[in-house]
Amino acid sequence: MQEFFKKIANAAWFQNSITAVIVLAGVLVGLETYPGLVERYHNALHIGDQLILWIFVAEIVVKMAAEGKRPWRYFLDPWNVFDFVIVAACFLPFEGNAVTVLRLLRLLRVLKLVKALPKLQILVGALLKSIPSMLYVSVLLFMLFYVYAVAAVFLFGENDPLHFQSLEMAMLSLFRVVTLEDWTDVMYINMYGCDRYGYDADSVVLCSSPVAQPLVGALFFVSFVLIGTMIILNLFIGVIMSGMDEAQSEAVELARAAHEGAPSLELELDLLQQQVAEIQARIGSLARLAKHKE
Asked: I want to staple 67 with a disulfide (CB 3.0 to 4.6 A). Which of 58, 73, 86, 281 is the partner?
């Protein structure tokens, strides 16, 4: 029976069918965003969703049965744990406003595509490997934002209170600048003064102390864009590319080991358990022999 279920779990048709069901699940969740379709085809959508849910349950059962007498090995794979949590959460009783939570959980089933497509697994693995390095880059970026935000409040707070009246608003405005979203408008407000640029009839009341700083404004925002966008944000790309290389190297090594018939983790565990059992038996026999001599 174990071999039978293992053949099914490893079969290409089974994996492709699950992938197709995942795509269909994503389509059904998307259709539920249209109230007219939900009202007209409520029963059909509900039946389709239940059918998909039980197909995923069958997938879990098949993969656990493929482990034979050790079904808990199914949970040794983090992706299997992810699948199990999503499917199990869909059986929780949701009523009233909590139905939105159920819809979001069903939407997460689309993420099962990451497991179904090996290339996506490499991408996710690269992102996970990059997290420690990205943390330090994020700290550096936060320091840059903090220094420039404090300086912006002192330099431009009176002229441009809409963007730099407080520290938190200054950091939010600088986030807009670093994404290059109309950042020149923010720069021109402080270069030419809020009375001459940027403030419309609704916000002109905030422009009570216009101050034009052409040189300071240009140097401040151009330097921030150069450092924040052109240098630090590119560090994120470099970190992710490094993680991508590591993930691809690991994938190649795993594929090579599988092709050359290298012992799998399960086989190594079985061998170790065998050796432990032999050692325990030997210890037992020596203990009996020592007791007999006494």
From this structure: 73
* Terminal alpha carbon distance of the chain: 50
Residues 6+ apart with CB under 8 A from 103: 29, 32
Q: How far is residue 22 from each of residues 28, 182, 202, measured CA to CA in Å?
A: 10, 39, 49
How is domain 134-245 classified at the architecture level of CATH? Answer: Orthogonal Bundle (1.10)
Token digits for 82? 């992810």
Amino acid at 167: L
Is domain 1-116 given the CATH code 1.20.120.350 in the classification? yes
- Are 64 and 1 in contact by the 8 Å Cβ rule? The answer is no
CB 152 within 8 A of CB 164: yes
Instruction: Give domain limits for the chain.
Output: 1-116, 134-245, 267-293
Question: Are 164 and 157 contacting, i.e. CB atoms less than 8 angstroms apart?
Answer: yes
The sign of the dihedral angle between the CA atoms of 237, 241, 242, 246 is: positive
Poorest-pLDDT segment among 18-32, 88-102, 144-158: 88-102
Structural tokens at position 223: 């330097």
Q: How far apart are CA 224 and CA 229, in angstroms?
A: 8
**Longest Cα pair distance anywhere in the chain, in angstroms?**
105
Under 8 Å between Cβ of 165 and 190: no
Task: Convert the pLDDT of each residue in 236-267 to its tens digit.
Answer: 777 777 777 776 676 666 666 555 544 455 65
